[in-house]
């Protein structure tokens, strides 16, 4: 049995807390928001997952020292926009060599750093890993079959986390390409906004298939330019995560995109979804990375114009369709 603290009180944090509890671990949920912890402690339910009664054996705290002292594993599950400040807040209390696994998805707009890079910068003596893949909290908390990837610099760290999380309904693979895993997880949310906008405009499956296929091509091009392994983007944390996020109504990014396709502003869509729409926060960073590495990413570029310049989603799709003619793959050989 491992002693684990899940940092964060969102749906993904709670789903993982339930999973880890089922695996027989001693699990504590920490949040910086007292009202969030009080609600969980009193109601044994999460407001966004009302059909699931949380186990009595879960512990809850807002105390920083209690949360991080004597832990075998810390699970960083706060929203991506709060990752750095949470790491900075807890850093003085975290011992050297502490294993931290980040489970959120995003890229910091100002620095273009992945979440694990932010954690490592704030807590340099920690062993930081990432857990990512095609996973919706609504299904994981119901213990439906799910596959996911843990990526770490050291094999023993990855395998330790694999052993803690894996069970008969939650299959965990290991990988070493942390940056590729994180890049796929962050930028698929931006493409999912585009897929949702296409749905909101009334476009069909053809358009969605095109966005998924060309979207992963964009992400993979950028990843390769940044030194990532190409195969990463055609695995669970690349195309797998992109498919589920673009196709499922569990996806907050897709739902927000649908609302924008129907004419709502970004702010109105985010308010109606009532959860963090990570793609909005990763869009600018994705565009900045494409320019830094001189990689063509037309879908990411158009989504930025819709989000931050008020461009009509229908006009953005039209521009994507009318781009210059080209071959699908760059190394096409003709007779």
**Major sheet strand order:** 3-2-1-4-5-6-7-8
CATH superfamily membership of the largest domain, which one? Answer: NAD(P)-binding Rossmann-like Domain
Number of self-contained structural domains: 2
Alpha-carbon distance between the termini? Answer: 62 Å
Indicate the percent of residues in helices. 40-55%
What name is given to the CATH topology of the largest domain? Rossmann fold
Do you know the CATH architecture of the largest domain? 3-Layer(aba) Sandwich
H-E order: EHEHEHEHEHEHEHEHHHHHHHH
What is the CATH first-level class name of the largest domain? Alpha Beta
Q: Please give the largest β-sheet.
A: 8 strands, mixed
Assess the beta-strand content as a share of residues: 5-15%
Q: What is the tally of helical segments?
A: 15
Taking all Cα atoms into account, the compactness measure Rg is 20 Å
User: Would you count the extended β strands for me?
Assistant: 8
What is the SS-derived class? alpha/beta
Query: Uncertain segments of ≥5 residues (pLDDT<50)?
Result: none
Structural shape: globular
Give the rounded overall mean pLDDT. Answer: 95
């Amino acid at each position: 049995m491992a002693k684990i603290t899940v940092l964060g009180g969102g749906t993904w944090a709670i789903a993982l807390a339930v999973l880890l509890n089922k695996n027989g671990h001693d699990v504590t949920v920490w949040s910086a928001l007292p009202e969030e912890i009080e609600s969980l402690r009193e109601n044994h339910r999460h407001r966004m997952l009302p059909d699931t009664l949380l186990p009595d054996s879960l512990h809850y705290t807002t105390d920083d020292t209690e949360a991080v002292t004597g832990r075998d594993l810390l699970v960083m599950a706060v929203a991506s926009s709060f990752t750095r400040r949470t790491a900075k807040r807890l850093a003085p209390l975290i011992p050297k060599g502490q294993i931290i696994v980040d489970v959120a998805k995003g890229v910091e707009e100002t620095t273009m750093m992945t979440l694990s890079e932010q954690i490592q910068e704030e807590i340099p003596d920690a062993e930081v890993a990432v857990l990512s893949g095609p996973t919706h909290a609504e299904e994981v908390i119901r213990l439906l079959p799910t596959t996911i990837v843990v990526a770490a610099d050291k094999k023993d760290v990855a395998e330790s986390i694999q052993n803690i999380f894996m069970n008969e309904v939650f299959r965990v693979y290991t990988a070493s390409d942390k940056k590729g895993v994180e890049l796929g997880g962050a930028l698929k949310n931006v493409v999912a906004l585009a897929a949702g906008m296409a749905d909101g405009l009334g476009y069909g499956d053809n358009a969605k298939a095109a966005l998924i296929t060309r979207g992963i091509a964009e992400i993979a091009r950028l990843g390769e330019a940044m030194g990532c392994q190409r195969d990463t983007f055609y695995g669970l944390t690349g195309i797998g995560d992109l498919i589920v996020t673009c196709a499922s109504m569990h996806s907050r990014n897709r739902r927000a995109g649908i609302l924008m396709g129907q004419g709502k502003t970004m702010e109105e869509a985010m308010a109606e979804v009532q959860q963090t729409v990570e793609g909005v926060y990763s869009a600018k960073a994705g565009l900045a990375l494409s320019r830094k590495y001189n990689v063509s990413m037309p879908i990411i570029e158009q989504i930025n114009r819709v989000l931050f310049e008020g461009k009509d989603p229908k006009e953005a799709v039209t521009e994507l369709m009318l781009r210059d003619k080209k071959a699908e793959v760059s190394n096409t050989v003709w007779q």
